[in-house]
Amino acid sequence: MNLAKIGYIGTSLFTRFRGRGVGKDVFGNRYFEEKSAVPGRHVRRWVVYAGPLEASTVPPEWHAWLHYTVDAPLSESARLPWMKPHLPNRTGTAYSYRPPGHDYRGGRRHRATGDYDAWTPGE
């Protein structure tokens, strides 16, 4: 049996019997906390991912809530105009950053403009 499946079954059962839904983000991830707290301990908080188990899909407002930085996540309507929408890590995808000179962009870049002096051993 797949170990990831076993973990998911355990999380599903724990969520069903001990969890209370708190909200959902724009990626479809669902957030939960324990229905009843254990005295002297934080109420547990967790996320059930909508797709692959990728932590970078958790937006900052939910990350702050998961780590007890805030008591309630920032609502979409409370976002300020200068706040950019959250993007998950795009490394390894077609949308990843490729600087000028990257092999996927032709492997050519502009010549140095003279503001750079190469180091030569012995100088």
From TrEMBL:
InterPro entries: NDUFA12. Residues 88-123 are annotated as: Disordered. GO terms for cellular component: respiratory chain complex I. Pfam families: NDUFA12. It comes from the Bacteria. GO terms for biological process: response to oxidative stress. This is NADH:ubiquinone oxidoreductase subunit NDUFA12. It comes from Acidisoma silvae.
